[in-house]
Amino acid sequence: MHRYRSHNCGELRATDVGSDVRLSGWLHNRRDLGGILFIDLRDHHGLVQLVARPDTAGFEALDKLSKETVVRIDGKVISRGAENVNPELATGEIEVEVGEVEVLGAAQQLPFQINQDDGVGEERRLEYRFLDLRRERMHKNIMLRTAVISAIRHKMTALGFNEMATPILTATSPEGARDFVVPSRLNPGKFYALPQAPQQFKQLLMISGFDRYFQIAPCFRDEDARADRSPGEFYQLDVEMSFVEQEDVFQPIEQLMTELFEEFGNGRHVTSPFPRIPFRESMLKYGNDKPDLRAQLELVDITDIFADSGFKAFAGKHVRALPVPDTAGQSRKFFDGLGEYAVEHGAKGLAWVRVGEDGSLSGPIAKFLTETDVEELTKRLSLAPGHAVFFGAGEFDEVSKIMGAVRVEAAKRAGHFEEGVFRFCWIVDFPMYEKDEDTGRIDFSHNPFTMPQGGMKDLEEKDPLDILGWQYDIVCNGIELSSGAIRNHEPDIMLKAFEIAGYDRETVEAEFAGMLRAFRFGAPPHGGIAPGVDRIVMLLADEPNIRETIAFPLNQNAQDLMMGAPTVLDEARLKELNISLRKSVTP
């Protein structure tokens, strides 16, 4: 028999009754019932129940051991009997009567319980992440991640893509976030940057003639944490294709996402094909550029109705309305609750009216609306008895943010929210540029390597804020999975695009020397995208926080509490790297 096990803890069945077996695993739980010990033994594959009877060597050994001790046991498989079967366990028809026990790894007192959720805080969980990962939910999440990545590789290869690796040590690049930098010992005073994404390298692969590339790529960005963003490092499905237009990129990615979410979505429906929604339309209808389409409500711009209104709360402001049907049975608590929700998201309040059986409007602001206002609102919003309308007024961005959140919450509370589905969409036609409200400076709104939709003509003739790029995002259930673009592969257009954003020719030639040199030796039209693996798994696992799907994430302050990173370097190491600190740092 094998030194540690003849079977794993998840494979024994009724057909094994009578067999002598050897198992190894962790003591998951222990119960003493009338002097008989029942032990749940756990390994990677599952749980099996052990039974140890009084006055046996197995009983004496197991009775003294703490939970999470690693043991090897020899025993005999016996039937539980029909009345004791546990249908929630794959091994629920049998148990193992313990004979010999060997301790393989003793466990100290645990900082938190493994076999139950005891409400321990995230910082403690991350400090003891190796214990946290023993929990069933976390173990399943990590194995789901493994299966998803394996499936992505298989499906991408079947779609004709080739997996290639790109460098980790590279040059810094202005891609929208702070770089992590690495000092060069052999080149004093110089630094490498960890890649925020393999953006330039994958474009260079296309220029090199490889046509269809993909990689499960590690990316590094020194940015703040969010529920859907892990600080430090993350992984993305990096994709690039040659001789393609926007729809050519959409087709394989849409097929991949549909198959992936159907395979691992636990029965949740994937709506296909994915709608294409222009950026400006998304901002107006949904209040953001990552709409949750499960919410079956839309915002309506009614600014013009109140442009010259005597109602001071709306006059001269951007006004958005949210019509909500079938609210006749809702109490005042429904309206007040949404008002409180809006205030939590930055509003000063939430104006509303409701439509009665006779078509008249009632509510806090109904008395301020003229007959013309009511007539226009009824027509524009297709109002009918039972409708309610919520209003937001103010600056465009402020109203969009608040009413976008209210739209989803109102849909959930009013029964207009679709559960059990994955609703994808493409957001398209992004502006190439945006203006900094404080400085007035024109800058890129997204990826600086995007091809403008009108090429050089648009760059030379249009107002920069009216220029659209071949930029797109893929969104699922209100989570942005990725940005992508058809790339700017023509040097003159690239130089002009950067000039508009305030970069002189010398700077661009210096910072993107490799790219520009490659473009001047024959570059194919190309484009790509990079869906976030962590976010994909977060959605499939139905987890609200991305750190729940990463084996060893950093905390919100970009610290590894388990390994103690980042660390302080001693003087000898700093000298070797030719680094001096402006002020001393204590460990």
UniProtKB/TrEMBL annotation:
Q: Where in the cell is it found?
A: Cytoplasm
Gene3D superfamilies associated with the record: Bira Bifunctional Protein, Domain 2, GAD-like domain, Nucleic acid-binding proteins
Q: Does the keyword Nucleotide-binding apply?
A: yes
Q: What class of enzyme is it?
A: ligase
Q: Where does ATP bind?
A: R221, D222, E223, E480, G532, V533, D534, R535
Query: According to its UniProt record, where is this protein mainly located?
Result: cytoplasm
Keywords for this protein: Aminoacyl-tRNA synthetase, ATP-binding, Cytoplasm, Ligase, Nucleotide-binding, Protein biosynthesis
Q: Where are the transmembrane segments?
A: none
GO MF term list: aspartate-tRNA ligase activity
The record's similarity note reads: Belongs to the class-II aminoacyl-tRNA synthetase family. Type 1 subfamily.
The entry describes its oligomerization and partners as:
Homodimer.
For this entry, the protein name equals Aspartate--tRNA ligase
The scientific name of the source species is Streptomyces luteolus
